[in-house]
């Protein structure tokens, strides 16, 4: 069986929402959001529930260990995106994050953290969420795209990413912070780094043209190549269709790239061929969830933790 990579977790946490809807509190800075049309709130919520169910089945079918939690609470429209409120790191480290939107702060779940402690070797949990009261926010692996191999945390400047808190996180978790500005095709700031770029073990996908500063663009491309990765550039059109919002996972037969069907349809044949040289593509159809301005990467919280041995009777 192929050996897992530090970059590609073989286990993940996902949340299946019962009350999904695009979040009215996040439309101000998330230009990727869209309003549902022609469907009732109940129809939208049911469609999102079904999309997550099918995505979980597809991931499990590929050999990914999915820890699925239900969310039946109304008033948590973005709970399907757990990667924003916690992350896990090799050595048994977990971080819990402060969220910009008030209605996202109740997404943090003690039962998820208890499962991690029960099923995996967790050494410590560093909780930054109290810094919400100080107006400091860092929305997990949405705000940061982490290179676990090269020990780098890439972060786009936005109101959801405090540079002060990013520095503190990187000091605690031993990453090098690389902060930059990026905009969409309309010149609006990109709200989360993980819609712009995806870092795999042997490749990276990134919308370099969204980085307006020439020197910074060159620096980031060179930093990504330092580990010998194949750099696949994405256009603004492909970013808008969530091609950057993908995640490499370790499946039964080796690496898989979980990506939305919308994103896959936006890629060209040459890009697909280059990706498939490194990982099997696993497209997931989630058009309703993408109305919220996030895609597959946002739905998946990777578990970079060592599992506890199974207890014998």
UniProtKB/TrEMBL annotation:
Entries under InterPro entries matching the protein: Amdntrnsf_FN0238 (IPR014541)
One protein family per Pfam: DDAH_eukar
Source taxon at top rank: Bacteria
Parts forming coiled coils: none
Gene3D superfamilies xrefs: L-arginine/glycine Amidinotransferase, Chain A (3.75.10.10)
PANTHER family: AMIDINOTRANSFERASE
Official protein name in the record: Amidinotransferase
Organism: Thermohalobaculum xanthum
Organism classification: Bacteria, Pseudomonadati, Pseudomonadota, Alphaproteobacteria, Rhodobacterales
């Amino acid at each position: 069986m192929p050996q897992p990579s530090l970059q590609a977790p073989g286990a993940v946490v996902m949340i299946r929402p019962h009350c999904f809807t695009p979040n009215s509190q996040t439309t101000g800075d998330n230009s990727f959001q869209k309003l549902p049309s022609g469907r009732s709130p109940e129809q939208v919520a049911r469609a999102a529930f079904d999309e997550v169910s099918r995505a979980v089945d597809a991931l499990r079918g590929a050999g990914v260990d999915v820890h699925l939690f239900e969310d039946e609470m109304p008033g948590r429209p973005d709970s399907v995106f757990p990667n924003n409120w916690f992350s896990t790191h090799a050595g048994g480290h977990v971080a819990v994050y402060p969220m910009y939107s008030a209605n996202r702060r109740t997404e943090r779940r003690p039962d998820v953290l208890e499962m991690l402690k029960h099923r995996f070797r967790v050494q410590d949990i560093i909780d930054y969420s109290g810094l919400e009261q100080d107006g400091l926010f860092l929305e997990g692996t949405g705000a940061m795209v982490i290179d676990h191999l090269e020990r780098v945390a890439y972060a786009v400047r936005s109101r959801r990413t405090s540079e002060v808190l990013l520095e503190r996180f990187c000091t605690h978790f031993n990453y090098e912070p690389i902060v930059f500005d990026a905009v969409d095709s309309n010149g609006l700031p990109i709200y989360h780094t993980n819609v712009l770029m995806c870092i795999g073990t042997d490749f990276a996908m990134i919308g370099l043209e969204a980085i307006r500063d020439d020197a910074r663009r060159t620096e980031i491309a060179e930093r990504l190549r330092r580990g010998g990765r194949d750099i696949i550039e994405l256009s603004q059109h492909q970013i808008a269709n969530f091609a950057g919002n993908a995640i490499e996972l370790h499946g039964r037969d080796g690496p898989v790239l979980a990506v939305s069907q919308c994103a896959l349809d936006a890629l060209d044949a040459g890009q697909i061929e280059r990706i498939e040289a490194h990982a099997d593509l696993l497209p997931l159809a989630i058009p309703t969830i993408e109305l919220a301005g996030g895609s597959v990467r946002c739905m998946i919280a990777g578990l970079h933790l060592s599992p506890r041995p199974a207890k014998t009777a």
